[in-house]
Amino acid sequence: MLPPTLIMTMLAIIYARYGDLDVLRRSLAGISCAAVGLVIAVVVRMMTPLLKRTDPLALILMAGVFLAIGCFACRFPAVLLVAIPVSVGATFPAAESSSMNPDNPI
Amino acid sequence: MSLFFGLMSLFAVCGAAAAVAAMHRIAVEVHHWITDEQFTDAYCDHAARARSERAYRDLNRLCRRRHPRRTGGDGWRCACLTALLAYYISRLLNRPSKSRWPGLIQAALVPLSIGLMAASALILAQSTDRTIAAVLLTAMVAVIASVSRINPLWLLLAGGLLGFAGIV
Questions:
Q1: Considering only CA atoms, which of B108, B94, B80 is closest in space to residue B13?
Q2: Nearest CA to B63 among B80, B39, B30, B45?
Q3: ipTM > 0.90?
Q4: Per-residue model confidence as pLDDT tens digits over A62-95
Q5: What residues contact residue B133 under an 8 Å CB cut-off, 6+ apart?
Q6: Contact flag B139-A8 (C-beta cutoff 8 Å)
Q7: Could B159 and A19 be called an inter-chain contact, meaning their C-beta atoms sit closer than 8 Å?
Q8: Distance (Å, rounded) from C-alpha B83 to C-alpha B99?
Q9: Who's near A80: CB < 8 A, 6+ residues apart?
Q10: Best of B112, B137, B140, B155 to disrupt the A interface by mutation (most A CBs within 10 Å)?
Q11: Does residue A78 sit at the B interface (CB-CB below 8 Å)?
């Protein structure tokens, strides 16, 4: 735990002092692209089970939240205050039916 | 600012990574507390540690350092309140019981978390991928990390080297 913390603290100090250097800026630009790629990979991995299950309602909710926050820049609390009750309300009937049919879990 | 970060910590479904898009919107676009570049640097600095919660915390600190007057004395109270609320909700959901509601709520949050994380990825990509080489690097890292179990640090190192060489 301590060595990574020390390394990153050192890197933060270097960034604070030499953040405007062209070499550091270029390197950070490359790291930024890779970091975004890693985030996309996490999204893909999380999305795969959802796509395999082909639950249209879950996919619509996912796309709705993505569009609202990512494309239309809607307010974060407002989106969640709408999306969470809708998602819970939509999941409840599915859970009810799956409890009656154990072969088809949520 | 305290209220914003307090609310964000309460609403951050599936961790701070899901709230990156909202943090970017408020901190960069609405209030201009930090620049787009500083936001991306703060996030990517912490991506190396794969702890986006720290990115959230340090982003909070960065904003506070740059705009100390906007942080009221009640900041810690707001943070404590939301942290306590989040803690008790978490305890409630993890409590062993025969109730189906905790599992139901967690199942309901899965698609929302993925949607939020995808939105975060889009916002970050819009900030970083401004050249074709950058888009290609992002796409390659996404594919490699999706299909393999390679340590992400190697991919970050490769990105840093490509950036250093001036390719990205």
A1: B108
A2: B39
A3: no
A4: 999 999 988 998 888 888 889 989 998 888 877 7
A5: B162, B167, B168
A6: no
A7: no
A8: 25
A9: B11, B13, B112
A10: B112
A11: no
